[in-house]
Design brief:
With 268 residues, this protein is α+β, with helices and mostly antiparallel strands. The chain folds into three domains: 44 residues; 67 residues; 90 residues. Helices cover 21% and strands 38% of the residues. It is built from two helices and 14 strands; from the N terminus they run H-H-E-E-E-E-E-E-E-E-E-E-E-E-E-E. The strands form four sheets. Strands 5-4-3-9-10 form a five-stranded antiparallel beta sheet, with no helix packed on it. Strands 11-12-13-14 form a four-stranded antiparallel beta sheet, with no helix packed on it. Strand 13 and strand 14 form a beta hairpin. The longest helix has 45 residues. The termini are far apart.
């Protein structure tokens, strides 16, 4: 107590100084908090949080655009006759024929018959030479462009011999009495088994001929071949037959080189 009586001024001054120091410390903390608060408020004012707008419903407009992408078309061409009346033509038999695409021109051409053209191979004869058989192979090319080349010809050959048409691969049976020969065709690699007694010959479809009819002008063409036969002339136009298959006959107009396909799949 005596100490406090003598030095109370110093104790009081020290307490005041401590209080001031604490106040200064609290002031710095308050300044930092106030600065942070000001920055937060400034950010809220300059960069406010905006609530996003609800997504627009564009279904109606998209439906309209979809309809516009495929607009309705008013087709007044064939078979409508409002602005393009149907012309008629008198045929050679005095009948009136509609002049539309299905009644005249290539689409009015009809395939009435197809004939298969075969490559035929058989064994005409054989003989024994130096203990090895030699075969005479008969050849008939029905699809050859040149009529003279369609006649039957023969080729003599032994096993291993090759010509422009086939390779004689092997024979079956004894050399002095073979039962058949095996030929390998050069163009397809196909094996053709041909018996020596002619009970089994080789036949392959190589092409077709067509019988054609053009009713508006009563014209008929028989056994017409592709690329070799004379052209077809009808409806004031000339056409070449460029291909014949089991499914179609292909024509090509000489004036503009346009091709036309005439179906024949219903024929055998």
């Amino acid at each position: 107590m005596e100490f406090l009586k003598k030095h109370y001024e110093k104790v009081l001054l020290g307490a005041v100084l401590l209080g001031l120091a604490a106040a200064v410390g609290l002031l710095f903390l308050e300044i930092a908090n106030e600065k942070e608060e000001l920055q937060r408020k400034s950010a809220e004012l300059t960069r406010p949080r905006v609530t996003p707008l609800p997504e627009l419903d564009l279904s109606t407009y998209q439906a309209v655009l979809q309809r516009l992408s495929a607009p309705a078309r008013l087709d007044l061409s064939a078979p409508h006759k409002l602005f393009d009346p149907m012309p008629w033509q008198r045929g050679r038999d005095s009948r009136l024929v509609k002049l539309d695409a299905s009644s005249v021109g290539p689409k009015a051409l009809v395939v009435t018959k197809l004939t298969k053209l075969y490559l035929e191979l058989d064994v005409d004869s054989f003989s024994l030479e130096d203990s090895a058989p030699k075969f005479v192979i008969g050849i008939k090319r029905n699809a050859a462009p040149d009529a003279r080349a369609r006649a039957k010809t023969t080729r003599g050959c032994k096993v291993g011999d090759k010509n422009d048409l086939f390779l004689l691969k092997q024979f079956n049976g004894p050399p002095d009495s073979p039962t058949n020969v095996v030929l390998v065709l050069n163009d397809t690699g196909e094996e053709a088994v041909v018996s020596t007694d002619r009970t089994n010959i080789f036949r392959r479809i190589d092409a077709y001929t067509a019988d054609l009819r053009y009713t508006p002008e009563n014209r008929i063409w028989q056994n017409h071949r592709a690329n070799t036969a004379p052209p077809l002339t009808f409806n004031g136009e000339t056409y070449d037959v460029v291909n014949i298959t089991k499914d179609e006959v292909v024509l090509r107009a000489r004036t503009n080189q346009k091709k036309w396909s005439i179906p024949c799949h219903s024929l055998d």
